[in-house]
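User: I'm new to structure prediction. If I give you an amino acid sequence, what do you actually give back? Let's try with this one:
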Amino acid sequence: MTYIVSDNCIMCKYTDCVEVCPVDCFYEGENMLVIHPDECIDCGVCEPECPADAISADTESGLEKWLEINTRFASIWPNITGQTAPMPDAEKHDGEKGKFEKYFSEEPGEGD
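Assistant: Good question. You get back a string of structure tokens that encode the predicted 3D arrangement of the chain. For your 112 residues, that looks like this:
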């Protein structure tokens, strides 16, 4: 089992989860974060820290697409290990439906 980041992170990119991760397995895209599934130690401390409720165990049904996205982009986006400000309109986008189709960007973030 590993934890993964799903679509509610898109356009929010809260980093409270990054701050508590003991193994620095978060990677930053332009408008979301992902978790590297091979680096995640399944401790679960990140899940309750996410204000957008965008982190789940990969054992939950319907998350196969997100496991693939996390795996793919964690290998190409830069590592992020500290907390940064969320996206400017994070509260507005929190809970919005269809964010992957509307906003997802393959572009990397800044990382550390």
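You can read the tokens as a compact description of the fold. Here is one thing that stands out. The radius of gyration is 12 Å.
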